[in-house]
Amino acid sequence: MAHTAGEVIEGKDLMLYINTSTTDAAAYTAQAMATNHTITYNSETKERLTKDSPGGNPEKRVTKTNVTIKADALSTFGGTAKKFLLAALKAKKLVKLKYGFATEEAGDEYEEGDFVIDSLEETSQVGEDVTYSAQFSSSGEVETKTKTA
Length: 149
Description:
The protein is mainly beta.
């Protein structure tokens, strides 16, 4: 379905993809049974107050940027995403993530980069579906890329 300028993007239209390849070539797999994704961009700043500061107010400059992604999904029998993430966490390995449209079209932008798995949590409450949550922090630059044909 074509994206129309000004049209509201629905939550189901965006997806988190995990590179599950064991080679240098990326092989992205959508996080199955996903219920929620949150991507947060943060910056750290440094204040500098000098005798030349306008009005005696400190000037700020950005010293660091960071991206965090939180992902929630339902656990399934035979599901591989959580197993892959747990193995990567135990091995202290970075994971390559991509965050963009579930159905990509040429010209669509997406975010891609290497991430540390900060946490992986499973919740199993009586009478409820088993879910898991993962939180990731960027390691290096997260690039905005454009889907080509």
